[in-house]
């Protein structure tokens, strides 16, 4: 691509982002919280209109029982584009609840620009990413047309575990057919390296409950009566070692070792402990002396929360009759979410805690693209064009998402790229992206489409 053409595209991107800022603000202003059943239809209408303004054909799929609507859009390659190549964008339109509200420095559902950042719930995860992709498409249309066919699929339940993705991909697999998929989000690490991430960890969520009596008892009886909260924490403490190691028999069976290519990619990943501690306010020692590798390929078991007994004001000296904990496991390729929860129950039984009951909530298997795939290599090469030497290829993220059902339905590589940075605070108060990263990610999106569409 000539320097003149590149300059024209960058100018068009800058113009599109400026013109589209009101649309971004409108999209972010909707409190689209799937967990509370808020804002769904209003958000779907904004998405539908936004895609149609670019000339896309749009369908709203309401044929998956119990699901929030899926929005599907298609755009053909321009007259000079490659109509034999199709790229699918996946995004989600639901966001996390904004609570705790008193920790926000501005209104969470009002786009605020300060200190070089866009701040709002969903600006990084993941409404902002969708809007910058539309701006990149608009710029391409204004400077010669789309270099390939595009498809968009947006769901409204990602933040509650994407429970209806699998039936949707099975039903609409033919419509979703593409040569590659760009996932919802991504960005820069703590050392400002732009990451091309090629997969996700899996997850298994389950509850563990304990019951020790039919009613709460006077705490004086603790001299000879056990209680549910103590019983629960004692049982849970047998599942994990002091360094985070999972002590459940069979938990790691089936875990696939990293390939030489994946291991080489992991070995070149930096880990900035000082920046990580500062960004998250960490107080305790790290659990691994190889945190970058652990994030990629170490399964985990985590207590998300425990409830039981009395925690209110004043005194109430009781032996709680019931206690409950919610846990999740982050999984790697080769682990089955439901089987993992069954193994936890078996381990509690073996450890003498058969009275504790494990109930499975939901889960997602892990997924990892082939790092040697040509599209992955194109994505990395394009990243070097836009970001210079500060680029890292990452086998998978530490978080989870429904990539496996997409791969089963479409069978093509999936990458995560976007505009976030180490301080974006997705799911936290004051969620943000830096404006400069937002602009840069739009430029990257346009360039990767151009390189992907080359004949």
TrEMBL record:
GO terms for molecular function: metal ion binding; peptidase activity; succinyl-diaminopimelate desuccinylase activity. GO terms for cellular component: cytosol. Pfam families: M20_dimer, Peptidase_M20. Transmembrane segments: none annotated. Keywords: Hydrolase, Metal-binding, Protease. SUPFAM superfamilies: Zn-dependent exopeptidases. This is Acetylornithine deacetylase succinyl-diaminopimelate desuccinylase-like protein. It comes from Levilactobacillus parabrevis ATCC 53295.
